[in-house]
Amino acid sequence: MSSQEVILHHFDASPFAEKVRVALGIKELSWRSVEIPMVMPKPDLTALTGGYRKTPVMQIGADVFCDTQRIATELNDLGAGPSLFPGDNQGLCAVIAAWSDASLFIPGAGLAMGTNQDLPEAILADRFAFFDFLDRKSLPQQLPSLFARFRAGLQRIEDMLADERSFLLGDTVSWADASCYAPVWMCRSNIAHADELMKNLPLLEAWEQRMKAFGHGRPTVMKASEALKISSSTHSLARPLLDVDAWPKLELDRVVTVTPEDYGAVPVRGRLVRLSQYDVAVARSDERAGEVVVHFPRAGYRVEGL
Question: Where does the GST N-terminal domain start and stop, copy by copy (predicted)?
Fold first, then answer.
């Protein structure tokens, strides 16, 4: 058991975890799979993150990576396998991923909650509390609009493939493809009338099969207790960094909070280790996880000094 193994904390039904699982398949990586609960509490996960509860979280030793944006860049920096950002297109991939989250995941989450009659009440209650952009009382009336928004997003993917390219950026698969594939995968498994939504999208359907063929790399199961043992017995490899142009103006080692700006806005408190235009990281201590550094993307997160 290596302290530098890629460990993914996730659950099977998470579309954001599917983004990362597909990326692991693209890069043909071996990794360890820690299954986390679908609903709170998640004590083993939050011991690592300091409160962040979104899925997935990636761990390498005592470094904990939150948000698929940050996970993708770290996976790419590992060097093994094909690049997730071919042609130095990291910026374009990030823009397409953000578009997918807004135009496909947001309405898709509403459709999954509003049309999936098999969801237990415990999951429904947890998700309606978590997704503060959804109103449970008015959701049935919103469904026609959500179907329209999701189908329009699917059409944009079809349009991007209109010249019969293999992938969204051309002949080579990228993070943009993984990001747009995840809500399509969610639709197939969690949204009623998925077949009707996917009608008359032949290029998208062929692309979907190409993405599915990448698989998920080579996962092996790990217990959460093993992952915590690794974090508590190793040291972070994070390099301190403070960009002169980074906002807000803070000094390293300042105690700060880092909070998602959308939903699930639980602040994570720690000492500032990195602050750049691309990432922010804080060091924190936990009696079970030990001394860890928690990493976030800069975009989409509020950083406040205490």
Answer: 4-83
